[in-house]
From TrEMBL:
Keywords, comma-separated and alphabetical: Electron transport, Heme, Iron, Membrane, Metal-binding, Transmembrane, Transmembrane helix, Transport
Domain (Cytochrome b561) ranges: 1-162
Protein name stated in the entry: ascorbate ferrireductase (transmembrane)
Originating organism: Littorina saxatilis
Keyword field contains Electron transport: yes
Lineage: Eukaryota, Metazoa, Spiralia, Lophotrochozoa, Mollusca
Cellular compartments annotated: Membrane
Transmembrane spans: 6-28, 40-59, 65-88, 116-136, 142-163
Primary localization class, coarse: membrane
Domain of life: Eukaryota
InterPro entries, A to Z: CYB561D1/2 (IPR045150), Cyt_b561/ferric_Rdtase_TM (IPR006593)
Keyword field contains Transmembrane: yes
EC number: 7.2.1.3
């Protein structure tokens, strides 16, 4: 039974921290898919919690006395805090308004906490592959996927930088003035309404 718990623990953690959470984060950062992001993150955290419980149950030695367990508990705690943090999100400013201090702090905490959680989860999943003495095909498959995630992240960041430079070079999109601010084709003062969020086409930043 313990061996089965360990196996399911590993599978759930890989699905959560190795697939759902990083993909959800990438979709939000590069495509502003907020509803897809929320769905992926909730499913990922559920997998992580279930995997964490099975991991605790399957350990016969002292809990949290080794690196894999310590990293795991930190990653899971940070991950669980993200949806709670999202529920405490300060009211989003209107496109023509500036973000307040509370909103700025919230965005930093939410983004930083989420990224650290995912990073620790990926590191711990990689460590878990060795602890489980996985067969070579599984090791190759995991590190191939991990490399693909890193590649997707770098490509996305390069695309963001190039897009930002291109838009700045063009001086941004032309916008016609109105009584309620500059608007054109759904753009208000440089903020374009996207999938549940406002996206600035010049800086490519997002307001939820």
């Amino acid at each position: 039974m313990t061996t089965t718990f360990v196996t399911v623990h590993g599978i759930l953690m890989v699905i959560g921290f190795g697939f759902l959470l990083p993909i959800g984060a990438l979709l939000m950062r590069h495509f502003s898919c907020i509803y897809t992001h929320v769905t992926f993150q909730i499913l990922g955290i559920c997998c992580a919690i279930a995997g964490f419980v099975l991991g605790v149950v399957s350990v016969r030695s002292a809990h949290f006395s080794f690196a894999h367990a310590i990293i795991g508990i930190i990653a899971v705690i940070l991950g669980v805090l993200q949806p709670i943090n999202a529920l405490c999100r300060p009211k989003e400013p209107r496109p023509e308004e500036r973000k307040g201090v509370a909103r700025t702090v919230w965005q930093f905490v939410h983004r930083f906490g989420g990224r650290v959680s995912i990073l620790l989860g990926l590191i711990n999943s990689s460590l878990g592959v060795f602890l489980a003495v996985a067969v070579l095909p599984i090791i190759i498959a995991w590190y191939t996927w991990l490399g693909l995630l890193v590649l997707l992240w770098f490509v996305g960041e390069i695309a963001r930088c190039l897009g930002r430079m291109r838009q700045k070079g063009k001086g941004g999109r032309p916008m016609a003035s109105t009584l309620h601010g500059s608007q054109s084709d759904g753009i208000i003062n440089g903020w374009e309404k996207g999938d549940g969020a406002y996206v600035n086409p010049v800086t490519e930043s997002v307001r939820l």
